[in-house]
């Protein structure tokens, strides 16, 4: 089994990847709507288009990752080039040279596609690298825990810098973190290189194998269905959290504290979820996390202006539940790859589709929730009662519905052999 030190070297790249995801997926909608006055419907359309475009290239990136991982040194070079592009795209996105609505929307679309592409390539490579390291349930959950644990601290750091220090410092720290992450990956455990003959054989097999190969397994199809439904439930609050804090609670000055404690609680809970996974299995542990998430988010519907303490309790409970979402699915994914007999040959393909599902969830959350809020009468910065009620139901009630659907599926498939 890999040591904690070796697992940490692999996982460190998760910190800057989660760091950049916080501004991209949480801060960007509220920042561009508030700072530049972009209409929610138009911004939601841009986010939907760019995230969908980004999501559908991930399976192809997964195939490239499988080829590069045959020689880990080549995969490292690809990761280095990708993080350089990611840092550049981030700077261009958050420091636009234009301010007029139409040019700014176009600038956002172009820079988002570029940034998402670099982010996706790095994320797919990192996920596939860890999946290829494999191991038993304990090792798989340990690798996932270090990757996601570092990711949570990356989110905490981004939360502080993006809200307190500005996007200039955020961009600089991101660049340094990406460089450090790739360096640590080069010093950590590497997948076994594939011989030239085996690599040529694998390349020929990839050329004749459809991108949909992972979907041929029933275990992967069930896991993805569960991951998609549960992911929509998580993506909607992530898109709307700053709107809720700003207008429903009227406590925008407390946003760093709320978000910080939410992700800190998730980070502190990760070791406990890993231990629970080892005792009762990843599927049952995931189901418990879903149930706790429902119990916390349904309480959002009773909050109003100034209810800081109540929202703080919700953040603590929801953050702890998030730990299950971060550890159980990745552990299940590696197990699915192993049981399908695709070890050391198709981890990138699985990782690509996994990233596709993550992006699809975020795209649907932005493309559906933001226009729906506008149609229901909510306008950022206003105090219309009907609009605020709509915000509460979309932010807190709708995710509970998706979580309950995921919980039913989780219970139904808890004994499936491919999801053990």
Describe the fold and architecture.
The protein has 15 helices and no strands. The protein has 420 residues and is an all-alpha fold. Helix content is 81%, strand content 0%. The protein starts with a helix and ends in an 8-residue tail after the last helix. The mean pLDDT is 84. The protein has a single domain (4-419), classed as Up-down Bundle (Growth Hormone, Chain: A).
Write a concise keyword list for the protein shown above.
81% helix, 15 helices, globular, 420 residues
List the helices and strands and how they pair.
Elements: H1 4-11, H2 14-36, H3 40-55, H4 58-69, H5 72-94, H6 101-133, H7 137-165, H8 167-187, H9 196-208, H10 218-248, H11 255-280, H12 282-297, H13 308-339, H14 347-375, H15 385-412
Helix pairs in contact: 1-7, 2-6, 2-7, 2-8, 2-10, 3-6, 3-14, 4-5, 4-6, 4-14, 5-6, 5-8, 6-14, 7-8, 7-11, 7-13, 10-13, 10-14, 10-15, 11-12, 11-13, 12-13, 12-15
């Amino acid at each position: 089994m890999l040591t904690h030190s070796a697992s940490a070297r692999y996982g460190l790249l998760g910190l800057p990847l989660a760091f950049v995801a916080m501004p991209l997926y949480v801060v960007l909608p509220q920042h561009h709507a508030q700072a530049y006055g972009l209409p929610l419907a138009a911004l939601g359309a841009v986010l939907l288009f760019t995230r969908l475009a980004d999501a559908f290239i991930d399976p192809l990136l997964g195939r490239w990752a499988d080829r590069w991982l045959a020689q880990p040194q080549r995969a490292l070079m690809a990761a280095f080039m990708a993080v350089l592009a990611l840092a550049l795209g981030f700077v261009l996105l958050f420091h636009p040279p234009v301010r007029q609505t139409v040019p700014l929307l176009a600038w956002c679309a172009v820079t988002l596609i570029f940034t998402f592409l670099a982010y996706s390539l790095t994320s797919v490579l990192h996920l596939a690298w860890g999946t290829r390291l494999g191991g038993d349930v304990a090792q798989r959950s340990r690798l996932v825990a270090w990757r996601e644990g570092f990711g949570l601290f990356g989110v905490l750091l981004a939360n502080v810098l993006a809200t307190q220090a500005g996007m200039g410092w955020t961009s600089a720290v991101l660049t340094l973190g990406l460089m450090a992450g790739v360096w640590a990956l080069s010093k950590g455990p590497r997948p076994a290189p594939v011989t030239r003959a085996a690599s040529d054989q694998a390349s020929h097999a990839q050329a004749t194998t459809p991108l949909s190969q992972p979907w041929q397994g029933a275990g992967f199809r069930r896991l993805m269905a569960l991951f998609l439904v549960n992911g929509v439930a998580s993506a909607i609050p992530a898109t709307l959290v700053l709107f809720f804090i700003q207008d429903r609670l009227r406590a925008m000055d407390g946003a760093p504290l709320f978000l910080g404690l939410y992700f800190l609680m998730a980070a502190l809970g990760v070791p406990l979820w890993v231990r629970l996974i080892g005792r009762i299995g990843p599927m049952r542990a995931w189901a418990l996390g879903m149930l706790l998430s429902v119990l916390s988010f349904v309480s959002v519907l009773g909050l109003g202006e100034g209810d800081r303490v109540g929202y703080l309790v919700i953040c603590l409970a929801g953050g702890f539940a998030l730990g299950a979402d971060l550890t159980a699915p990745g552990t299940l994914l590696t197990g699915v790859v192993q049981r399908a007999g695709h070890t050391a040959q198709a981890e990138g393909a699985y990782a690509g589709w996994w990233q596709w599902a993550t992006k699809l969830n975020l795209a649907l959350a932005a493309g559906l929730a933001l226009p729906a809020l506008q149609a229901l009468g909510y306008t950022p910065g206003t105090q219309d009662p009907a609009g605020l009620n709509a915000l509460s139901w979309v932010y807190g009630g709708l995710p509970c519905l998706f979580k309950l659907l995921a919980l039913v599926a989780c219970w139904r498939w808890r004994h499936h052999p491919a999801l053990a």
